[in-house]
Amino acid sequence: MSKLPNGWIQLALGEAIQIQKGKKPIGLGPKGKDRLIPYINISAFETKQVEEYAPEQNVPRCEESDTLLVWDGARAGLAGRGIGGFIGSTLARLTSDLAAPSYIYYFIHSNYRYLNTNTKGVGIPHINPIVLAELKFPLPPSGEQTRIIIKLEELLADLDSGVAELKAAQKKLTQYRQSLLKTAVEGTLTQEWRDCNPPKESGAQLLERILVERRARWEAKQLAKFAQRGVTPPNNWQKKYPEPIRPDITELPQLPEGWVWTSVDQLIFDSSYGTSVKCSYEGDGIPVLRIPNISRGSIDLHDIKFSTTKIAFDEKDFLTIGDVLIIRTNGSIGLVGRAAAVIDELPSQYYFASYLLRLRCTDNFSVHRWLLTALSAHSGRKWLEARAASSAGQHNISLSTLLTMPIPLPPQEEQLRALNRLDEAYDSITQQEDAILLLVKQCAAQRQNILRAAFSGQLVPQDANDEPASVLLDRIRIQRVEKAKQPKPRKTKKKESTMVTRKLVDVLTEAGDWLPAQEAFNRCGINDGAQTEVIETLYAELRQLDKANRLAVEAVADVQGRKIYDKLKLLVS
């Protein structure tokens, strides 16, 4: 950092802020008369929408003037404005008696990348408290802090407004791209052309040609296997040909004249999973395409990793024109099924990673490009997402499921006409998307430049009349010492109780309706640290009510049928 202006000082961030980790409160549920305190978990932090509330209790609480910091997870180090309420265990609140709240927020915000890339922990990353505490923190005079905040909010508001407009333009282009795909796979894009150009070959006839080619390739592959083993093909070996899966068209819409419904399996002659071999940027093996290389329907070769061990492949195993790569598994459902086709010859031999599937079409037809169109259209995305299985936070589309996907197949001439129309439109859309993306990146860089200027004393002029930050620091240090000398309030020891504060029957009578079991227990006085005797007293009453047929118990489940909790209700005797 360059030399700071007069009146500024630099100190470790740990001396300027106080950190309090969150803790999940008990008794969470919908907002009610006994649950009024918002619970700020990671979801509420991201969306600013509170879904759960808690009763009053002694757990860390955030104020709107505080800075919230994501402490655990992939986005550890992300800063946000405070939200009033109890904070969850994956968040921490930052406060300061030296710097203005907004000054702290903007400083942490400007250091997100550094904090996020210097975490600790295996598996789930966590903020490294030493890294956070040792951040070099430039402290200006209090008056200048105020001027910096005002200027920052002015400049960043203008910048954010511009970025919002760019994002809106991006969304419109995405919607336009989808509308084009929809008209293509439904036939409206080429309706006028179709009316004036009766097909020489129907979609059904094209499918027959594809199926003949599919079988011929299977037979050639089998003969090659026999020759490799040095054996004579057995009689009737051709009868072992696995017929492709036919599409289920019972609920599919009617297609334009000359079109036919087919399946993915009918349109391809081979399919395979990728390699799970370890790859890195420094590897000296073959280049292996990954999920980042699937971009807007094309193969993006800008971010390539290489296998770290030698892989034995035949020439035919490498990617070639006619191949379609599909993302089969990802934590984001929106990425599952995203595809790219190999349209042009690749500059060298490439393979693909295990998170991808390859569908192999012949390059004698335009099928691979049409298949990509159908997979990318809204109807295709809807079909794929509805059939993706979910487990441990990952979504997956299996090859066996993918092969059954119905695909509308027009005559080849009409296919080519539609694909050419799409290419023409895509050229313009892609140019606009690239221009917007560049502007968004420039805005991000400008944001960092503004923040850098703010924390180096170059954003606003200094005022010689401001109290130097060193004087402020000395005064705060004295105040901290004096505060530490003050006797802490004595904690009165709670008497151990062998009785429940309130009887369950009284709590349920007062509720008059269903009550979550945990909430009922809380109202009875059963909280963390309750004595065993107290708990036993409550359970004894619970058994008595149940035995007397005065208690209704009902399980509450989520949308997948998994039990979340029990709820209780007192029956009228």
TrEMBL record:
Pfam families: Methylase_S. GO terms for molecular function: DNA binding; endonuclease activity; hydrolase activity. Keywords: DNA-binding, Endonuclease, Hydrolase, Nuclease, Restriction system. It is an enzyme of class 3 (hydrolase). Its EC number is 3.1.21.-. SUPFAM superfamilies: DNA methylase specificity domain. Signal peptide: none annotated. Residues 6-159, 279-433 form the Type I restriction modification DNA specificity domain. Belongs to the type-I restriction system S methylase family. This is Restriction endonuclease subunit S.
